[in-house]
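In practice, a research group might receive sequence data for several interacting partners and want a quick structural hypothesis before committing to experiments. The following worked case mirrors that situation: the sequences arrive first, and a predicted assembly follows.
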Amino acid sequence: METSTFPIVLVGAGNLATNLGCALSRAGFPILQVYSRSQESASALAGRLGCEATTNPEKLTADAELYIVALKDSALETLLPEMLRGREERFWVHTAGSIPLNIWERVPGVKRYGVLYPMQTFSKARLVDFRSIPILLEANAPAQMNLLKEVASTLSDNVREVSSRQRRAIHMAAVFACNFTNHCYALAEKLLAAEGLPFEILLPLIDETARKVHTLPPKEAQTGPAIRYDENVIQKHLDALSAEPKMQTLYRLLSQSIHEAAREKLKGKK
Amino acid sequence: METSTFPIVLVGAGNLATNLGCALSRAGFPILQVYSRSQESASALAGRLGCEATTNPEKLTADAELYIVALKDSALETLLPEMLRGREERFWVHTAGSIPLNIWERVPGVKRYGVLYPMQTFSKARLVDFRSIPILLEANAPAQMNLLKEVASTLSDNVREVSSRQRRAIHMAAVFACNFTNHCYALAEKLLAAEGLPFEILLPLIDETARKVHTLPPKEAQTGPAIRYDENVIQKHLDALSAEPKMQTLYRLLSQSIHEAAREKLKGKK
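A structural hypothesis for the assembly, expressed as tokens:
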């Protein structure tokens, strides 16, 4: 069987499933079916991919070769037995950063399984180019790994094998580098909005902050009042945040953390 | 007098003074002198600009038209009287995000003063292109504002007038969007290093996170376990961070803050 005619079922219709499904479809893989608990989501993605939608895990087709599960972690664990029953002979992969490979062993009889974790921030409204996205793979045997590498390589030039433990560390790192970073953008937007200023004013700074760590390690790239330990500025900002106690706490703890990292770096140099 | 022959003194030789001095010099402004408390810093920047260096504020030349002060906030406040004595007739500006315009009124006799705040993350090792950097201006009178606009416009296409209060809000927003963001990158690097993984693996994600907010507001762009409120993942990550209690606290508070922002957004839609 040629890789490019490998029939696939998508279990999930969220941000990741949408982006992955569209990318696989564009790469020539026939998507047979989309499952989601929500009819609306299932139909929306199935419509984009021109395939069948289902909200009933028992109605999952048994005709696909590869089943890609992109559900919220808790949903994956709950649905696992029902999804797999009668389809134990198929090749199952999940896409979660922090679920170990051996979750598949909970269902007796499953012989071929793995993980395909594309590390990116996905939104349905914004289809991303997979070419440079790291796709992190794990599989229960070399044959499965080879097959996953073939599939992933049609999407990305940045495919690598990692252990479950490494993948979890990467997922945590991604939470810091992406989710928490984006929330810092959101908190910044809130501060600007209170003074009638547009968020766009920050874009050159946001872009340079991201660009900078392509050439300097983040510790070298750090600037601002906390790394200078400019207590005047820090205190002014904490005072100005007094009406927002939670932002004030975040400001204080992040500034302390920056300052401590700088002290450790200095000690390392001595 | 033509703007482009406006002689300038730089008080300060740090990251901002270095970047600003080099940009002004390239734009044709003669830099007469650089002051810094540290001989090493003063000489390094004066060497780059081909001008005189001094570490003695009393030896500041009185021959310049514009004095640009780019010092740590506490140093500016301490040095203020000494710097200005005998040079009260000159035009003084500072470059600080969170120091109000009226700081100049502390010294009697100063008649022309303002603020020129370029909002960017500056490192000596990395000269940035000023063209798209927002330069935020404030001045004590229209004549001074016009002059600052002329100077700033030779450097950037993104010049705007803001009040001291707005500037402080912008500075705080910049701390969140740049300094805290960069620290999130540094914490991510630490998590990867512990598993022998290179920081570079995160660059496509970091880039997309920054790019995404050019087209989606940060609240719409948010992804990850906290916005999904995927307690399974959050708890796994908190457990994995048990040896790093400060990172664990940051993880918990940032996740809560993301979750609360999402709830507020939902309420707003109802």
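Before designing any experiment, note the following. The longest strand of chain A covers residues 112-118. Chain A has a mean pLDDT of 94.
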